DNA sequence: ACTTGGGGTATGT
DNA sequence: ACATACCCCAAGT
């Protein structure tokens, strides 16, 4: 009747995940009110968040269809901000100890072997941002420094340096990174204003939204240098948004000279 | 005022 | 039919 049913967008889901990661399960109202997530969740109620979380948890779980009569909850739940995330949250969640190939499989085992492409890419991006933001080399960190930093912190394949090299080139090509000073979200916004002034039309909204998301996501990955899990998630977010931004740029390249 | 569990309806296989 | 996704209600705190 009143509601045509509003499907949850991936942005909303991400916001919800992030919110739960920060506030813990059950603090739905807090998450909804949090200015950091309210931009994505303003149209959802705390109850909606709860329901969505339930659904996500159910489908992310291997096969636990909606059991009602089963498992009447053996645990009373210690109610700590650490929660049964539907996707992530590694065994030793709090520390910097991460990613050794043996333990990671616990979270993404089901789809691990085939489609790793996108996921590893995101992971590498996250590592790069982590390295850059930690090293904070004003002249820009050279590749050796980045490699050695990451090697100290993560298990990486033998050809990692090669991978990293192409990865970096790509990021620079996409202007998500610069050679020289560390990347700043601010670098992106002025660019967009060009697009805006030329197009000024329907795409403006999309472009601004995309740019804002990229900026926000990248900005976050600085803060999240210590929380690698978060960084991974954020990197994925950035990549999604970046696709949008690319589109906007292409359009600008085509029509920018005329309009 | 919020959280929580149950349930209802639409939609996809 | 069954499972899933979204929404709503009523009870408990």
UniProtKB/TrEMBL annotation:
InterPro entries: Histone_H1/H5_H15, Homeodomain-like_sf, Myb_dom, SANT/Myb, SMH1-6, WH-like_DNA-bd_sf, WH_DNA-bd_sf. It holds the Pfam family Linker_histone. It comes from the Eukaryota. Transmembrane segments: none annotated. Gene3D superfamilies: 1.10.246.220, Winged helix-like DNA-binding domain superfamily/Winged helix DNA-binding domain. Residues 5-57 form the Myb-like domain. CDD domains: SANT_TRF (cd11660). This is MYB transcription factor. Binds preferentially double-stranded telomeric repeats. One of its GO terms (cellular component) is nucleosome. Residues 52-89 are annotated as: Disordered. It is found in: Chromosome; Nucleus, Nucleolus. Residues 1-31 form the HTH myb-type domain. Keywords: Chromosome, Coiled coil, DNA-binding, Nucleus, Transcription, Transcription regulation. GO terms for molecular function: double-stranded telomeric DNA binding. GO terms for biological process: nucleosome assembly. It comes from Cynara cardunculus var. scolymus (Globe artichoke). Residues 120-186 form the H15 domain.
């Amino acid at each position: 009747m009143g509601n045509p049913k509003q499907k949850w967008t991936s942005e909303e889901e991400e916001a919800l995940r992030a919110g739960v990661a920060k506030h813990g399960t059950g603090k739905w109202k807090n998450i909804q009110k949090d200015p950091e997530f309210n931009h994505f969740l303003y149209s959802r109620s705390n109850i909606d968040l709860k329901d969505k979380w339930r659904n996500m948890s159910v489908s992310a779980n291997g096969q636990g269809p909606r059991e009602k009569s089963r498992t009447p909850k053996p645990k009373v739940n210690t109610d700590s901000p650490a929660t049964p995330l539907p996707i992530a949250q590694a065994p030793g969640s709090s520390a910097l100890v991460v990613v050794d190939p043996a333990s990671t499989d616990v979270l993404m085992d089901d789809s691990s072997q085939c489609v790793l492409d996108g996921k590893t890419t995101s992971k590498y991006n996250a590592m790069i941002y982590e390295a850059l933001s930690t090293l904070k080399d004003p002249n820009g960190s050279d590749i050796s420094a980045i490699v050695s930093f990451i090697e100290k912190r993560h298990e990486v394949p033998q050809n990692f340096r090669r991978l990293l090299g192409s990865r970096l080139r790509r990021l620079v090509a996409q202007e998500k990174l610069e050679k020289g000073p560390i990347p700043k979200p601010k670098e992106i916004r002025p660019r967009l204003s060009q697009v805006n002034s030329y197009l000024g039309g329907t795409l403006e909204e999309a472009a601004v939204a995309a740019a804002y998301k990229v900026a926000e996501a990248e900005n976050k990955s600085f803060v999240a240098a210590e929380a690698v899990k978060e960084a991974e998630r954020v990197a994925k977010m950035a990549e999604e948004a970046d696709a949008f931004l690319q589109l906007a740029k292409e359009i600008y390249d085509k029509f920018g000279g005329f309009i």
